[in-house]
Design brief:
alpha/beta, Alkaline Phosphatase, subunit A, four-stranded antiparallel beta sheet
């Protein structure tokens, strides 16, 4: 790998919808730095996450494979790694070194094997945070609570250096919490006493309140501080680097610093999209997914929903400020003109739309349509427009980066080089794969440039939406007797792609 190879920086948020930015049409958003990136680069207007929840979506982004093929079909399943097999208590430390184990390479593995220095700052979420400590996963909260990770900084899934956060809101563990304890002991002690939970904005929402962590100590600020420190340390290093910056916001709990809230709590926000009649056309399988009161806003006041959106905007504003700081550091260190820069997220949040809140394993456009901004260095400039409406998936990120960095794409990657695809055909149909604990609620979706079709295989129910005429998905066109012909065409295409992509072999162990 030559010294002229491009650096790669992925800035990744958690649970951020497409319509949350000024550059995507949100008039209430204050996101000047992210909007500036969109003006400099390409805004993909139809970027679709491979899953509606964290772990499978993140695994797809970093492996270029859909959830079954990555080995992470749903939350709570670790991305396959050979090193975890001997650690498992059932294997009693047996040496598996001579056994051919499946090992799904990540983008960090790929770039690291081709001369890149690799680093992750913030949230990754490639192993379960609530796993028993005996499994010894690096992102399990229990292993941080007992001090086992205090001096650990990787390697981890190809990242040579790691500075980690676990969790959300003001209960974040990992390297961040160790730093907070050492530098802001009074705040850390107040959090341990639970004082942050005594300031609920609305009693019906137990995980939304003004934060007690000030701006200078907030996790988003710390993540940017550590990313900038990494960039500063590399000013005399000519080797290319891959830096993954994972912000845990704006995921629930919604706990923006109190001093930010005056900017947003007086602002108007777009009202939630809801038509009470829409539920009569939804599949029964979709309805079952959201019966839990944890997701329903039926008991919420309009003021509570408005504040959910205001608090979310405040958290995104803080992310934007820190994106600006990271970009400024790249520029000051003369690294910006050699860096591929991506801004994206893993999935969205209902935020009151359809009478729901948070996210889960049922496809909805507000959950899978997320921002994706690609800014290329001048040396890689090509004739690209400022916006691309062709659908793309987060499985397409690995092959696209590999092509730009001129490194081989590993076998098994299912995504495609999205820039080449756009230049040559302009057609692409990504999938969304949602595998839950109940077979009846498993659902697979396909997107083209206009429509979304969702299929529940066990119940054979379908959803079909025309986003050109029904952008908020209030009218399921597959619920009546006259199902549009396009729905049948997309269904056949979904079946073909599902057969092609469903290879759940990544975690298999074989002794022959």
């Amino acid at each position: 790998m030559s010294a002229t190879s491009p650096n790669v920086v992925i800035i990744h948020t958690d649970q951020q919808r497409y319509d949350s930015l000024g550059c995507t049409g949100n008039d209430q958003a204050i996101t000047p730095h992210i909007d500036s990136l969109a003006r400099e680069g390409v805004l993909f207007k139809r970027h679709i996450a491979a899953s509606t929840v964290c772990m499978p979506s993140r695994a797809s982004l970093l492996t270029g494979r859909y959830p079954l093929a990555s080995g992470v079909p749903t939350n709570g399943v670790a991305l396959p790694r050979a090193s975890y097999i001997s650690k498992h208590p059932l294997n009693k430390g047996r040496d598996w070194s001579r056994v051919p184990l499946s090992h799904t390479p990540t983008l960090a593995d790929i770039l690291g094997a081709n001369g890149y220095t690799t680093c992750s700052i913030g949230k990754l979420h490639l192993t379960p945070t609530q796993a028993p400590p005996a499994l010894d996963y690096e992102e399990t909260v229990a292993t941080w609570n007992n001090g086992a990770r205090d001096n650990w900084h990787g390697p981890y899934y190809g990242f040579q250096h790691v500075e980690m956060t676990l969790g959300h809101g003001e209960n974040i563990k990992g390297h961040y919490r160790l730093w907070l304890q050492a530098t802001h002991s009074a705040i850390s002690e107040a959090l341990q006493r639970g004082e942050h939970r005594k300031r609920l904005a609305f009693p019906e929402i137990s995980d939304m309140y003004p934060g007690i962590i000030p701006l200078e100590a907030h996790p988003s600020t710390w993540i940017a501080d550590r990313a900038i420190a990494y960039l500063n340390e590399r000013t005399n290093d000519v080797s290319p680097f891959f830096l993954f910056v994972g912000f845990p916001d704006p995921h629930f709990p919604l706990t923006p610093p109190a001093e930010l809230l005056a900017l947003f709590t007086q602002n108007e926000v777009a009202p939630p999209q809801l038509d009470e009649r829409e539920w009569s056309s939804k599949p029964a399988s979709f309805t079952r997914l959201w019966q839990n009161s944890f997701f329903s806003t039926r008991s919420y006041s309009p003021a509570a929903i408005r504040m959910v959106r205001q608090y979310t905007q405040a958290m995104i504003y803080l992310i934007d400020q820190n994106v600006g700081r990271i970009v400024a550091a790249l520029q000051q260190n003369k690294q910006y003109e050699q860096t591929i820069l991506i801004f994206t997220s893993d999935h969205g949040d209902f935020l009151g739309d359809h009478g729901l809140i948070r996210k889960g394993l049922g496809c909805s456009d507000v959950l899978v349509h997320v921002p994706f901004i690609l800014r290329l260095p001048p040396a890689l400039s090509m004739s690209l427009p400022g916006e691309i409406s062709m659908p793309m998936s987060n499985v397409d990120v690995v092959p696209t980066i590999c092509a730009l960095a001129k490194v081989p794409t590993p076998a098994g990657v299912q995504g495609q080089n999205i820039l080449s695809l756009w230049q040559n055909t302009g057609r692409h149909c990504p999938l969304v794969c949602c595998y839950g604990s109940s077979p009846e609620t498993t659902n697979i979706s396909i997107y083209d440039e206009r429509y979304r079709l969702t299929w529940y295989p066990v119940t054979r129910e379908k959803e079909f939406y025309d986003h050109w005429h029904d952008p908020h998905e209030l009218h399921n066109l597959a619920s009546g007797n006259q199902v549009p012909a396009k729905a049948h065409i997309l269904f056949l295409q979904l079946l073909e792609l599902l057969a092609e992509y469903s290879h759940p072999v990544s975690a298999r162990i074989a002794e022959f």
